[in-house]
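Throughout our pipeline, every protein is held as a single compact record rather than as scattered files. Such a record has a labelled line for the sequence and another for the backbone structure tokens. This encoding replaces a full spatial description with a residue-level series of whole-number codes. For reference, a complete record is included directly beneath this paragraph.
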Amino acid sequence: MMKLFSILIAAFLFTLYGCANDQGLMREDERISNQHNPNTNITPQTGNDVNEQLGYVRYSKNEMDEELEANHSATIDRNTYADMITRIILRHDGFREVATLVTDREVLIAYEKDDGMERETAADIAKKTAESVMPGFFEIYVSDNKSLIGDIQSLHNSSTNREYDNLIEQLINKMKETSQER
């Protein structure tokens, strides 16, 4: 338990340090990689504006329209979560490429790692990163099978397909076959 806590603290500090040094500048390789990123309209936060550093909302019961709220449902931005998970994983030495797909129940992560990184270590980093970002009810699947990176991208592009749930299930089964989790 202490080891897990230490890893989570280290990951948080590493992320915090990385965010503190981000000047909002986009490198050439980041511009090129945007062709694979569905979030090309996301503006990086510079950290210069205090309002960018905080998230705050306050309502009183009188301000809420109960009819509108009855039909309101909480949602998450899956692309933002996938982007965040992918970027955090790539900050670790040993990862070359990472693809992340977030559905309403699962997180699927496929990656290519350097030869010097142990398979179990890479899987541990990928899974714990997703666990630290996502709500606890998400099932997380990771794989170092490079061909699954393309499969994840194809799945993202075919989300309107009627066979979408079957495709997700097939991809999860492929990921389980190449699982290297401890």
About this structure: The first strand starts at residue 95 and ends at 102. The chain has one domain: 2-42+77-177. The chain is about 50% helix and 10% strand.
